[in-house]
């Protein structure tokens, strides 16, 4: 299986390092993406922060240049918006779509519209300095970088792409304080089109229990529905 893994807000592909190491030991191919604007050395153009479309384009290009191996596209938190956009465009190229405590949008949704008041307040307070970039919240890794505000605000456009739909899995971090995913998790539990798995360690599952996350991902099968 080829895993393309997309991190949530403020973080880079490094957040999946320990998960990727375990998957590679089991002969999987893993590409952990650092979204544009979140490069370790800072954004290419500080005056033009990327929006959601730019991140969807970036990840779609990575998926599209694959070698034909079965693809599991995984996104944490904000990256649920990104992988949903990629799946709408390239659904027939994907075998699995995995939302890791992540937003699951419908057409017209945004990270802003789907999140909780706690995170809206955090976005606005974090962007107060320049109105473009959301400062890194306390408690994240020192490698985290300010996140482009337009990507949190832009509404997604989903055309309902044709082709074979990938298997869909939602991995919940449990009922952590302020989670915007509690009601979503319960709704998906009753949706026959979804598998729901729980790793109740809080939001940052890849950091807090990489072994459990790798086990859930490694159990996915290309022919699973």
Which characteristics define this entry?
six-stranded parallel beta sheet; two-stranded antiparallel sheet; globular
Task: Give a written overview of the molecule.
This protein is of the alpha/beta class. It has one domain: Alpha/Beta hydrolase fold, catalytic domain (Rossmann fold), CATH 3.40.50.1820. It is 33% helix and 16% strand. The protein contains nine helices and eight strands. The strands form two sheets. The protein has a six-stranded parallel β-sheet with strand order 2-1-3-4-7-8, with helices on both faces. A two-stranded antiparallel ribbon has the order 5-6. Helix 1 packs across helix 9 and helix 2 crosses helix 3. The longest helix has 13 residues. The radius of gyration is 16 Å and the shape is globular.
Please outline what is shown here.
This protein is an alpha/beta fold. The protein has a single domain (2-218), classed as Rossmann fold (3-Layer(aba) Sandwich), CATH 3.40.50.1820.
